[in-house]
Amino acid sequence: MKVMSGFHSIFFSMVLTMVLLVLSTGRGNAYPIDGFDRTGIRRLVHAQKVMDNLEKGPKLPKGALLSTDQIQLHMLSPSFSLIGTSDEVDPGLQKKTNSLFPTLDESYSLAVLDISPGIIPRLALWQPTRRFALGSVGKLAVAAGLFTELKKIFPDDTEKRRELLKTRIVTAGPWIETDHHNVPVYDPASGRFDSRPIRQGDRFCLYEWADHMISASANAAASTLWKEAILMHSFGKNYPPSAEDEKIFFATTPKSVLSGIAEKVVNQPLIALGITPQEFHLGSLFTAAGKKMIPGEGDSNGTPMGLMKYLVAMEQGKICDRWSSLEIKRLMYSTAKRIRYASSPALSGDAVFFKSGSLYHCVTEPGYSCKKYMGNKDNFMNSVAIVESPDNRIYMVVLMTNVLKKNSAVDHQTLATRIDAVMKQE
Q1: What residues have CB less than 8 Å from 82, skipping those under 6 apart?
Q2: What is the DSSP letter of 333?
């Protein structure tokens, strides 16, 4: 295959590394449902029992059946970079990608990167620098911030990091107000399973809060974890603080100082990856109570190219380090109900690592009634995905849209099917 000029620094060592990783990575039973002992995420116990026909519930699709150890990073060569290469695309893939958009809304913006083993990575773009409100996709920045601060506490001991994520129990407080997202709440002792919004007084370990933030997209979890990252940054080796010390810290620290810390802990890790604030920037907490306690600094915006750089950095093990990048990827692994882009039937047999986000606003308009995900002023819907197929095709997609007055979930699903068909043709 023709090598793109922007990728001439990718050597055969990268290809060999990727091939070896794929050969050593089998297909197996289930992730993350095999991960309870490792993480303390209690919903995994319920998911495993459902798969074993011991409890009722929807079965996971075939593509959700990887074990923890089978999820690996697939682009470890540090020489690959998207910085400065936004105009250097693969002509063949770009031509096929262009054919997807003539009949779609003008807001559609896309970045696609094929990192399948044995080939030079192939890039295709459609309005990759157009900026969109992030919605819940911005929670990926919180994940990067959390793991960055965790590494500062235990720079050379990943087992202690994992143990802290599992054993640090955080009680839901005022930071969660108000959030409508349901999260899975399971008690292994009683076998009671519920799907509901987080309530004050709920107790979850950090791994569970992270799972709620990524998998269930709970705003309450995102604000709570962002708060914990601020505490890690401020208390350092003395984290976690006592409940009283935490209360005193937030009560006595000037809001301007808190805003500065909040902005730093989630955005500095992105800048360290070569992602500019114009490409991916998180401005404020995800709940109204969180915004009140820590005022935001700027809007939360991103571009397809910025988010694609995040995925590349994760696959290269550059978000903090390889261990952190891999844990973030495992948290992105779809083992709950697949929605929007990830719900495409064409992907049911594939492993999908996914985050979506939406944000809509309505204004008074004669003859129009505002509906959920159908704003007439703003109607952002964004999808970030890595797709890994049993035949070893691996590609990344960032799709961002702002189609007014229309729930774009079905369009995202349809485009996922069409993009997958393009990748299968290659």
Answers
A1: 113, 123, 305, 308, 309, 312
A2: B
Cβ neighbours for 205, distance < 8 A, ≥ 6 positions apart: 39, 40, 41, 165, 166, 167, 168, 169, 170
Q: Are strands 301-302 and 122-126 parallel, antiparallel or unpaired?
A: unpaired
Average pLDDT over residues 389-411: 93
Q: pLDDT tens across 126-181, in order?
A: 999 999 999 999 999 999 999 999 999 999 999 999 999 999 999 999 999 999 99
pTM across the whole model: 0.90
Phi-psi region at 254: left, alpha or beta (left = phi > 0; alpha = psi -120 to 50): beta
Q: How far is C-alpha 238 from the geometric centre of its chain's CA atoms?
A: 29
pLDDT tens digits along 5-64:
444 443 333 333 333 333 333 332 223 678 999 999 999 999 989 999 999 888 888 899
Q: CA-to-CA distance for 414 and 397, rounded, in angstroms?
A: 14
Structure tokens that stand for 304 in this block: 């397809």
Give dist(CA 351, CA 371) in Å, integer.
Answer: 32
Unique residue bearing structure tokens 């035949």: 391
If one counts every other C-beta atom within 10 angstroms of the C-beta of residue 263, the result is: 19
The CA dihedral of 392, 396, 401, 407, to the nearest 10 degrees, is: 40
Q: Mean of the per-residue pLDDT values for the chain?
A: 89
Paired with 114 in beta bridges are: 122, 395
